[in-house]
Amino acid sequence: MYDKEKGLFDAFVAKKMSRRELIQATGKAGLTASAAGFLLTQAQTRAMAADFDWQKYKGSKLKLLLNKHPYADAMIANIQTFKDMTGMDISWDIFPEDVYFDKVTAALSSGSTEYDAFMTGAYMTWTYGPAGWITDLNEFIKDPAKTNPTYNWDDVLPGLRASTSWNGVPGGELGSADAKQWCIPWGFELNNLSYNKKMFDKVGVQPPKNMGEMLEVSAKLTKDLGGPYGVGVRGSRSWATIHPGFLSGYANFGEKDFNVADGKLKAAMNTAGSKSFHKDWVRMIQDSGPKNWSTYTWYQVGTDLGGGASAMIFDADILGYFMNGGDNKEAGNLGYAPFAANPAASAPTPNVWIWSLAMNNAGTQKDATWYFMQWASSVEHDLFGARKMDFVNPVRASVWKDEEFRARIDKSYPGYLNQYEVSAPGAKIYFTAQPLFFDLTTLWAENLQKMVAKEIPVDEGLDTMAAEMDKKLAEAGLG
Amino acid sequence: MTADAIEKRAPVKQSRFMRRALPYLLSLPALLMCIGILIPFFTAVYYSMLRYRMNLPAMKGFIWFDNYINFFTDPKFWNTVYISLTYAALTVGLELLLGLAIALLLQRPSRFNNIASIMLLLPLMTAPALAALMWKLMTHPDFGILSYLLSLIGIQDFKWASDPATALFTVVLVDIWVYTPFMMILLLAGLRSLPKAPFEAAALDGVPRSFVFFRITLPMLMPYILTATLFRLLDSIQQFDIIYAMTQGGPGDKLLVFQVQAYLDFFQATNVGRSAALMIILWAITYALSNVFIKQWLKLRERAHGAH
Amino acid sequence: MDHTSSFEKFLRGALITLVLVFFLFPIVWIFLMSLQTNETILRIPPSLAFTPIIDNYTALITGQLRTAAGSLQLNFMQNMFNSVLLSVCSVALSLVLGVPAAYAFARFKFRLGEDIAFTLLSFRFAPALLVLLPLSLYFKTLGLTNTYIGLIWVYQLICLPLILWIVRGYFEDISPDIEHAYRIAGNSWWRTFRKISIPLAKPGIAAAGLLAFIFAWNNFIFALILASADKQPVTVGALAFVTASGIQYGQIAAAIILSITPTLALALYAQRYLVEGLSMGAVKG
Known about the structure:
The complex is a heterotrimer. Chain B is mostly helical.
């Protein structure tokens, strides 16, 4: 019944028509918004279906292991499209984030075949890959018989593609030519400033541009606001304390976690540059950080910003994004800014967290599973999630160009697009990929806690820590 | 009257076999139901003798007791032993004193006391992991009601679990809040089932109450105290939920107890061998401690029965 | 007849009040939080002035959670059902097996008796983490992964040793003379056990059963590792409100309050047996 209009949507999906043109055209045709949405989904299906047999695994049943996350919600909201297109049946187990990775480790280590694909972070694949628990996805991506022609893998941001592939050699460069693609980027977060505009205006300060300004501005905020503290960062005894703001700032000074020479790793946290950054970071927390810093995980950092207990966070951009909505007290008051810790640096170097999809190596229906994975990471689904759901940050360059998505973000999240665009070229994983990742980052966080509590001096602490790490690396045959 | 005499006069005759077999018939089903756990247990013992890190499969190998030997030269291991034992001693000791005091307060069976004793079980009914999450919020410097109340009485910026100086205090406090009711209810049940006669006699003779408490109540209650303490000790030395949810073992390595370290070794580092060895050592400590308790318990029992 | 001075009464009252405040204040606070949104929970300083809402409870019970990101499906009531099923079955199984065994250890001296008793206790020493990986491998081989039967078996490992050793203590405190007298009157051993021994040990059985139930209820590592999402207990279910888009304190609080309710009901019911403790003192040696 919508035959004439169908042509419009096909033209839009084929990028022959801009969104504005489409809206005008459908408006003329008298289509309601919901009917338009329906037709768009159908058009997505038709666009993807061109020259590819989506029905090949009709009747297959897949099961996913998912984290309780807006990305998973966005996928579930759109799953009917996939079911209709492929005739496959799909179910999932969702576990809370607090226990999610325990569940994944348990399922994978026991060789369970229950789950075909699952959500993971890129760091975790440094464990799952060498352990033989996940499948190298290159064999699917590079096979035209298995991947639909419109998939457009190169559209996925290059930093993210590289950050999710590794050759498995300790210290091996991410995204090298011999790297295995351990997972597919799904949604990601980079680390920049999210700040409370009202508080900044009240005190009369601008978002800091480098570490020196950060120390000044956050101290002034703490002093003048009389209550809220200047800057929120994580501090719990965990790798999660190192990877957001801390490593992003650290990398901006060109500092590294490890040096690799002749296939051996050596801790590099005790250089002069590293020591000076550590000192600034420690002082920032002591002067203007959260009082209970050493217990802070991402949700305390976020809660404080959303509840008006902190004036700014140097953490995941999407954490600031979520705090600007919902029933948060400060919803609507937040702004976003890029941050390059090093005054000499040309641009920020945000370390990234990438929620990705990986394939269970013990799974029994890998080809069918890849059908789901390519759909879930397709342009079409990415667009749907970015426009209609909280599927941010999208991992595809084309989605970042989408006018509807941009308009939605720009309207409610001032500065968000800018912080993204300024930082995106430098956004990637700055850790050295190696099997002791979790042991050594936890040790790093432990030492940072001791420095902030003034139990050990920074210089000496870093020397001791580097020596301890070298010892552990040697024990594992890596150093 | 001797057992023989009873048997002779009992109309329902039991065969000799039945008499011998009865205790086994009663206790073996329980044993059989549980014995299966020994299989995974011994598998874990085997793991503890492996160099076995799941993400370094090439290194896997049988190394006898190297995992254990490595611990003995590792100062971090001794820190873990020290923290675990301190934590267990503090929590169990304080909970015993507090639990006993509350049980004595509520000893008289009145409607109020009965309801109060049930209400006091509420903290125990809250899953420790969730309770810790709530305590973390209540001790938040800005949003936390407890921090606020402290500030009203002039204590500003008390840092609770985040300060190395007060972290142990804070987790012990939460542990006390959760588990004192466990002690209380077992001791209360014990107090209430003590025979009345000795107390009535003491009251008639006008014996001072402190004497009654130390010479009559406490000795009679001792088996209950031992059981309650034993179970509390088993759980406390293996504490995970509260500490992990509150501090993840920090600040620094202040609260790095056995289970937290083993959890990180297993789930994050996938170092199965090291994690298993650590757990076996914890198991051995627990085994030794409970052995002492049970010996003491049996001795007390023996004495009590001798008095009959 | 009552020779306690009024000062002592006052002191006793004051102490009980203090104890109740310490242990119940956090519970009351959690209850108040369960009637609020994050917006009023997270205030500086915390305050009691708020308009109570029951949305958190309706969300949990109906399974529909409305958030900024849209409506989410929850299966909290399924979690509740799982907790009830796992706890009730494992405690029942532990009582059926544990009480007779406790009686055997209390009444009879038999070869290997103490060894068996201690072995049963020692099953409780093994830290969950130690057996988790092998257990999940064996469960997979045996087809017990993701079954209620498998989980109940694991759960009774937590309950049985506790029940056994607590109840044993109570049996030992009952004088054998009463049982003997009843048997002389012509009753079988089995009848004596049911009609005399068990009723006399009821306070102990009630206390042990209740505590075992609570421990089973609060456990979550076993279900987390050994079963899929549809068999998870409330302890895992309540963590669902720690979400990437923020931590929903109101809903966690409501989940805690709801998850306490069945245990509290059981405790209030068992209270009658706990009280009997005193009256039975009269019939003891």
